[in-house]
Amino acid sequence: MNSTVRIEMVSTGDEVLYGQIVDTNAAWLADFLFQQGFLITSRFTVGDDLVQLINALQKRSIENDILIINGGLGPTSDDLSALAAAKANNEELVLHQEWLSVMENYFISRGKEMSPANIKQAMLPKSATIIDNPVGTACGFRMVINDCVIYFTPGVPSEFKEMVKSQILPDIKNQYPQIIKPLCYRLTTIGRSESDLATEIDSKLAIPANISVGYRSAMPIIELKLTADESMRPQMDQIWTQLKAIVKDNLVYEGTIGLAGVVSELAQQQSQQLIILEQKTAGLMAYQLYDNNAPVIKSEVLSQNSNIREAAKNLQSQYPNALILFLGDFSEDIFHLCLMTSQKIFCYKLKYNSRRHTKQTEQEIFSAIGLDALRRYLTKQPLIAPNIWLDVLDEDITIN
Asked: Over 90: is that where the pLDDT of 238 sits?
């Protein structure tokens, strides 16, 4: 991979610096550029302070070959990126008539009058060249400070992503044409800890120095990544086969489709309708399935005092061919997971043994357990996978 190009993303804004919003643009950019063969080598965050912005541009431009500045291009007084860029390069802001005309046409086409405040968005450093924004009124711009190419981009995600894809990436590729595209294999497991996986993988696989194994833990799943240059594909394929054999009992999916995406694909392929009943998970399972266009014909969130089994039986009389999954009857760490089919009823009494988590994390954990049970049924496996955090207290499979 091209590790000789030093690329840093600088996120601006008090709301980002103080954690009031999540910096999703930075995560997206790092992954997008990685797929194109470029690595983000560092990230930096600075608030809405002119002096700090100027200092950041001067110092970070010395340390890097490319800077991608995100945010601070709006029409309000706290949008300071253009002014900071001009001062950092000892030049003036000038009116770029080209962009002023674009903004005027933007408002005219919508039957609105442009506010005088928007003129500020056409005031750019004298040496800047405009990066078009086909989505909004904040143009991006490109300039060079300390021999570092700097791209200034708006903070709105849709505008930022379009600008990066259509204009910034082609310009970077033009500057660095000899990139080596990375190869990255990914799989997701459930029911094993990161340390447990790492210990077994390290003991059983001889990984060459130019192939890296990465782990990403997001309870209750662990994602494994194998990364190297495209030229290493034969060795990667061999190691990948061995790696999948190690985790086969806990393997959920390959790639980045997501657990709900896998269930949705399987249900669609098998023309299998789904009904989801939930209590503690508060509709999270159904939401994820709906979001992936799964054939969910009904979903309900029932109170803790509701008779979830009775509700499931009533629905089965109405929809005899649907798969009915219900997750409920929670009492401390003990709960029931049941799946009704046209032929059988699978019901498990389970105990969750991990440490305490926030309510949101627990909902995500139990949702993953439920969705994985669906996936395993649709792939003709036992509903409950080997899981270090789950004890099966009782198992009841009856003919329907």
From this structure: yes
